[in-house]
Amino acid sequence: MLLAAQERPYAGAQACRGCHPGEFRLQSASGHARSLSTAQGHPLAEKFTPRAPFTRKPNFRFEFSRQLTVRIHDEEAVVEVPIEWAFGAGEQAVTFVSRVNAEFYLEHYLSYYAALGTLAPTPGQDAIQPKSLAEAPGLLYKTLDQNTGILGCFECHSTGPVAVAAGNVLTPAEPGVHCEACHGPGGTHVKTGGKSAVQNPARMSAAELNSFCGRCHRPPAGDAARIDWNYAWNVRHQPVYLSQSRCFQKSKGALSCLSCHAAHEPLRTRDAAYYNQRCASCHTVAPGKPPNCVDCHMPRVAPQPPLRFTNHWIGVYGEGAKLKPR
After folding, report:
1. How sure is the predictor about 2, in pLDDT bands with cuts at 50, 70 and 90?
2. Residues 6+ away with beta carbon under 8 Å from 22
3. Strand partners, 64
4. In a domain? residue 3
5. How far apart, in whole angstroms, are the C-alpha atoms of residue 11 and residue 191?
6. Do residue 40 and residue 148 come from a single domain?
């Protein structure tokens, strides 16, 4: 278990760099490291201000300035909302969040999609028709609600404690998921020159690791019957689905998240051969070129194009069926 932050303070990823330069370099290039930033500081920031305006039914018009402010108007009035935070590395999408007041943060109506190279409605919001200009900018989330508060989003997309200042202004200690998100507070480790150990997820069992990664990627379900396996959006919760696969269940702890995903490296999203080799490390394949295991046994699911997620319920799927193995 991680010790409390006040007992073992956070040091920040830069403090890890001196002794672990290789891991720091690889991890800094990963989607985890870029999972949260200020909108102005995001590597794709110049793409967040399209020249052409967007419309939203019934009669709202969205215009963007180079200062990352969205101007929304109808026939009668105008509202301007600064874009403060960018959630997501941009490998698939980036969703924008801004503080409204002490009680609410705004998830903007428009997100950036890498496959489109432009903005489009944020998942789930296209089906909502605003009744007034006040509702047009997007969806409001309570700041500190225990179940659905935006604070939880900041906590999973950053490292270290999220400060809650006066007026419920949220400030992450370190935007993005970096070293101490997995290894725990490293202040004492740095101060003692490495003599004080930090947590190492590589020493966890497969089940422990699945639950550990599930803190943000959703933990395996205590009751699988409560999961709607026909709801395509659930596929993005990798630990939930991996826990159902026979490969995971029958591997006797040999198969874990780290079997396929090197902890400090970016995902190899366009390298099917790499993942096929991981399959071949356990499964016997015919000599020569290995089959394309992942396309058949871990199909990609598109709950809302252009977003696509790999189904981690490793299994045998029927023709055209990508949600649940037969």
Report:
1. very low
2. 264
3. 70
4. no
5. 9
6. yes
pLDDT tens digit string along 269-324? 888 889 999 998 888 877 776 678 999 999 999 999 999 999 999 999 999 899 99
pLDDT in tens, 22-55: 999 999 999 999 999 999 999 999 999 999 999 9
Question: Is position 169 within any domain?
Answer: no
Do residues 15 and 9 touch, judged by C-beta distance below 8 A?
no
Q: Domain count of the chain?
A: 2
- Within-domain flag for 265: yes
Angle at 214 between CA 212 and CA 219, to 5 degrees: 115
| Residue 31 contacts residue 267 (beta carbons within 8 Å) | yes
Contact 97, 108 (CB under 8 A): yes
Domain with 127 in it: 36-152
Task: Tell which residue, 55, 60, 57, has the closest CA to residue 77.
Answer: 60
Q: Which residues pair with 320 in a beta bridge?
A: none
pLDDT at residue 4, as a whole number: 43
Instruction: Please give the span between the terminal C-alpha atoms of the chain, in angstroms, as a whole number.
Output: 38
Strand (E) positions, 180-310? 300-304, 307-310
Q: Residue 161 phi/psi, 5° resolution?
A: -70, 145
Tokens coding 94: 């980036």
Buried b / exposed e along 66-76 (16+ C-beta atoms within 10 A): eebebebbbee
Peptide bond into 130 cis (omega under 30): no
Q: Is residue 189 part of a domain?
A: no
In whole angstroms, give the CA distance from residue 137 to residue 110: 8
pLDDT recorded at residue 291: 76
From CA 326, how far away is CA 321, in angstroms rounded?
8
- For tokens 């299994």, what's the residue? 315
Q: Are 205 and 108 members of one domain?
A: no
Residues 214 and 146 in one domain: no
Q: Is the pLDDT of residue 245 over 60?
A: yes
